[in-house]
Amino acid sequence: MAVVKQIIPVALGERSYDIVLCPGLLATVGDRLRALTTSPKVGVVTDRHVASHYLQSTLRSLRKAGYDPTPIILPPGERTKTLGTIAKVLDVLARHKFERQSLLLALGGGVIGDITGFAAAIYQRGIPFVQVPTTLVAQVDSSVGGKTGVDHRLGKNLIGAFYQPRAVLIDPLTLRTLPRREWIAGLAEVIKYGIIADKEFFAFLEQEMPAILKLADEPVIHVIKRSCEIKADVVAGDEREADRRRILNYGHTIGHALESLGGYRGLIHGEAVGIGLVQEADLACHMGLCAREVVDRIRSLVQRAGLSEQVSRTAFGPIWKAMQHDKKVVGGQVIGVWPVRIGEVTIRPIEQQICAEWFQSTHGRGRKTPSGSRPGKPSIRRKTRVRK
Ligand code: NAD
Ligand code: GLY
312 in the Ramachandran plot: left (φ > 0), alpha (ψ -120 to 50) or beta? Predict the structure, then answer.
């Protein structure tokens, strides 16, 4: 991979920072912190999987730059994203006498980034933190924008804070060790950006998906860069999700519901979002907001990325109930994001009755498949993974 450094600014006034995207960056992470903290103490929060690949080299780079790093290694996976874990992280910081200028470094995927950011937000009322994302989901989405937090038994990400990192340092070479399933899951968030904001990027993904799936350097760097640019632009315009930032939640209303219904044991985040992208487009079409062709293009790209697009067998009641526990509920109304055309979405509430009608017609008994035929006799063979 040719060494090309890209810098994408996130313009947030005094909370502004840079996203630095550079192959091989991890080896110089220590040097890059120099401008960000004067304290020698750095807590490196990571999980066991990531630690096995990247902890030693990160610690080496930090020590070489004069830092005194404390590793904090957590169990991998969504089920670690709890208040209990936050308490454990805070415990380590207090025991090691971390101060206001001491820095936390989130080395890992979205789970580690969300936990680290929240711990940084509340320890001594806020200490600096830096994101070093190592999954595709984290490199294109979760490390940027300052949403931090943990899950509650009744809903995902219910507890947290908006707290911006001091920098996002992306080394795309770390994606080479990412399990295939995690890589593909990340593509759901990438496809989301094309749908919500950039029809040319969507067309690029349609054209380049085979190369992207082979992890070809150039298209992968472009995917990360363009995703970060779109996210940075949306966040700069609406940091605390008063309005436009909601568009980033496209695919997540149904996606989060499916994730929490599975007790965070079945679908991983990106897989749930992939289903959400298609199902929410289908619902938008049912509401008359977009043409069937829009749904078909989204479904086709999601499938070509190797993602599932179907809801496994479940009743409407539990899904609707899970949707009610989402943060996107305002005054009891579920606020959804709906595609109008590729590259443009609209934000509006969804009524239970309309959602129930749609669910019955697409997932209930006697439903019609997207091609208009009865289920069981598909007119086209679709490559989907349906979890029971
Ligand atoms: P994750 O953090 O659980 O990481 C997925 C798996 O990959 C883990 O097992 C991890 O150990 C492993 N891993 C990470 N990097 C690796 C690497 N380079 N090589 C080998 N293994 C590696 O999952 P994720 O998909 O990165 O993040 C999902 C989380 O992010 C969810 O909790 C979601 O809510 C959150 N999220 C937050 C935001 C936000 O704006 N804050 C946005 C999107 C998603
Ligand atoms: N991932 C949604 C957001 O950052 O707003």
Answer: beta
| 8, burial (CB in 10 Å: exposed 0-12, middle 13-18, buried 19+) | buried
* Cβ of 49 below 6 Å from ligand 1: yes
47 lines ligand 1 (CB under 6 A): yes
- Ligand 2 probe mutation, 118, 140, 148, 241, most atoms within 8 A of CB: 241
Q: How far is the CA of 103 from the centre of ligand 1 (A)?
A: 21
262 pocket-lining for ligand 1 (C-beta < 6 Å):
no
Q: Express each pLDDT in 297-324 by its tens digit.
A: 999 999 999 999 888 777 888 888 888 8
Q: How far, in Å, CA of 283 to CA of 275, rounded? A: 12
> Which ligand has its closest atom nearest to the C-alpha of 270?
1
Query: Model confidence over 72-120: pLDDT tens digits?
Result: 999 999 999 999 999 999 999 999 999 999 999 999 999 999 999 999 9
Strand partners, 161: 148
The one catalytic residue in 41, 81, 252, 363 is 252
The torsion of the CA quartet 51, 23, 231, 142, rounded to 10 degrees, works out to 0
Instruction: Tell me which CATH code domain 180-209+243-388 carries.
Output: 1.20.1090.10
Annotated catalytic residue 189: yes
Catalytic residue among 78, 241, 271, 280: 241
What is the residue type of 93?
Answer: L
- CA-to-CA distance for 65 and 130, rounded, in angstroms? 16
Q: How far is the CA of 136 from the centre of ligand 1 (A)?
A: 8
**What does the alpha-carbon distance between residue 4 and residue 205 come to, in Å, rounded to a whole number?**
21
The topology (CATH level 3) of 6-178 is: Rossmann fold (3.40.50)
Rounded to two decimals, what is the model's pTM? 0.92
Q: 3-state DSSP call for residue 191?
A: helix
CA distance 315 to 224: 36
- What are the residue ranges spanned by the domains of the chain? 6-178, 180-209+243-388
Q: Which atom of ligand 2 is nearest to the CA of 246?
A: 5
Amino acid in position 25 = L
Encoded tokens for 96: 């090691």
182: annotated active-site residue? no
Please tell me the distance from the alpha carbon of residue 186 to that of residue 130, in angstroms, as a whole number.
Answer: 21
For residue 158, the ligand closest to its alpha carbon is 1
